[in-house]
Amino acid sequence: MTIVENNVDQTINDEAVTTGYARTDDGEQLHWRRIGQGPPVVLCNGVGVSTFFWKYLVAELRVDHTVLVWDYRGHGRSARIRDPLQTNLSVERHADDCALVMAAAGIDAPAVVVGHSMGCQVALELRRRHPARVSGLVLALGTAGKALETFFDWSGSPRMFQAVRDLVFAIGAPVNLLVRPLLESPLAWEVATRARLVDPYYTRREDLTRYLAHLSSLDQRMFWTSVLSLQRHDAWGTLPALGCPLLVIAAENDNFTPMWCSEKMVRLTPGAELMVLADGTHAALVEQPETLNHRIRRFIEQRCATA
């Protein structure tokens, strides 16, 4: 492992913000950003998302924690992937990448790892593959494995996702030119709110717009390959012997991950805690940040400080 960049690029309230890149053993370049000082907290994104979804939690924790945010392969400020068929986009590889990024950023102590959506599976896999890196887990709006089976609680979801992935690859690179205008259109907000993918009364339009802009910038072949990898990963069997504090966060109106998945994770994990966000959707990180941030802070201080 080598760090190809490591510099202080800005100051926020007199706190140094260090950014850098970690080079993986198969040649990928991963972007990371370390903010604040104190016990470490590592944040793992959902698929198709960059670090901006964590802005409210980062603002909450940076005053007394070291917060590490980072981008998966092909996402955000990490190097974009030229050929998704030649790059490992599995959850297992993302977990190994997370351990690599932690080392590159100088996070040596065990960290509380917070995952959103796909990040829940990455966080669980990090605990399985690199247990000394994890002191506690917060799994928000995600599941422990085979995530496509529970999308909209519909048994046909895995076949639907496979069909979309096959179509994207059949079209090839031009698919990006077709998808980009749709995601950047004002109609995208209407579709997302009418389908209850986000709650229009809680979500700031600029937060969703930023997500859609990032999604439109991605190679769709890479994105759909990453989505399919969620179905091949399964960490359900790790829960009974997880061995660290666990907080699971669910949302009443999450169509991506139904609440019974969160309840099952808590039921299988000794000592686990469950938080349910009333009226929340899969985008609850930016819908109800005050409530969510308060609960995460309390969990870290009460359950993880001495873990």
Any overview of this molecule?
This protein is α/β, with parallel strands linked by helices and 307 residues long. It has one domain (2-304): Rossmann fold. It has 11 helices and 9 strands. The protein has helices spanning 55-61, 91-104, 118-129, 157-171, 175-184, 187-194, 205-217, 220-232, 259-268, 284-287, 289-304; strands at residues 2-12, 15-23, 29-35, 40-44, 66-70, 111-116, 134-140, 246-251, 273-277. Helix 2 crosses helix 3. The relative contact order is 0.14. Residues 1-14 have low confidence and may be disordered.
SSE layout and pairing:
Elements: E1 2-12, E2 15-23, E3 29-35, E4 40-44, H1 55-61, E5 66-70, H2 91-104, E6 111-116, H3 118-129, E7 134-140, H4 157-171, H5 175-184, H6 187-194, H7 205-217, H8 220-232, E8 246-251, H9 259-268, E9 273-277, H10 284-287, H11 289-304
Helix pairs in contact: 1-11, 2-3, 4-8, 5-7
Brief write-up:
The protein is of the alpha/beta class and 307 residues long. Helix content is 40%, strand content 20%.
Strand order of the largest sheet: 1-2-3-5-4-6-7-8-9
Q: How many distinct helices?
A: 11
Overall 3D geometry? Answer: globular
CATH superfamily: Alpha/Beta hydrolase fold, catalytic domain
**Percentage of residues in helical conformation:** 25-40%
Mean pLDDT: 92
Low-confidence stretches: 1-14
User: Proportion of β residues?
Assistant: 15-25%
> How far apart are the termini?
29 Å
Q: How many discrete domains?
A: 1
CATH architecture: 3-Layer(aba) Sandwich
Instruction: Please state the structural category.
Output: alpha/beta
Instruction: Report the order of strands and helices.
Output: EEEEHEHEHEHHHHHEHEHH
Q: How many E-type strands?
A: 9
